[in-house]
Amino acid sequence: MENPQKTPVSSFVEHKLYKVSGIGIATFLGSALAGGILLAKNFRKLGKESHARKAIVGSLAATIGVIIAALLVPAEWHVPKIVYFAPQIMVMLQLANLFQGKAIKGHRESGGELASNWAAAGVGVAVLLSLAILAAPVVWLLQ
């Protein structure tokens, strides 16, 4: 039997949204694609399916662009790896703040739960492993 003293939970707060920091962690570990997946999950939970599709397509395009850029830059240039990672993280954090910051804050203030940053890290690692598995044959062929 349910506790009659407990405040009823509305449908708005039944789902967990990923924090902006979680989106940053996923991006750090698994590229813009991982951050885009979390943005898309949040958009879907907020009822914005078209935004979710744009997040996936945009983050996939960004990830492919970074990979191509990394492959095309000659090794003699000695470009630090941070050049490829930092912009992805900064852009994803800004996009998350811009498009979801207020919704995440409102969700939390209304009693909604937020997803663990560990879960976000798991998405990042899963995307990283997936990209590594997909990239391995390409790298092997290019050598």
**How would the global form be characterised?**
elongated
Strand residue percentage: under 5%
Pattern of helices and strands: HHHH
How many individual domains? 1
State the helix count. 4
| Helix content bin | over 70%
Mean pLDDT: 91
Major sheet attributes: none
What is the C-alpha radius of gyration, as a whole number of Å?
18 Å
Low-confidence segments: 9-13
Kindly state the number of beta strands.
0
End-to-end Cα distance: 65 Å
What features would you describe in this structure?
With 143 residues, the protein is an all-alpha fold. It is elongated. The protein has one domain. The protein is built from 4 helices and no strands. Helix 1 crosses helix 2, helix 1 (20-45) packs across helix 3 (82-109) and helix 1 packs across helix 4 (117-142). The longest helix has 28 residues, at 82-109. 73% of the residues lie in helices and 0% in strands. Keywords: Membrane, Transmembrane, Transmembrane helix. The chain crosses the membrane at residues 20-43, 55-75, 119-142.
Write the layout of secondary structure elements.
Layout: H1 20-45, H2 49-72, H3 82-109, H4 117-142
Helix pairs in contact: 1-2, 1-3, 1-4
Key phrases:
143 residues, mainly alpha, 4 helices, 73% helix, elongated, transmembrane helix, membrane, transmembrane
Quick gist of this model?
This protein is mainly α.
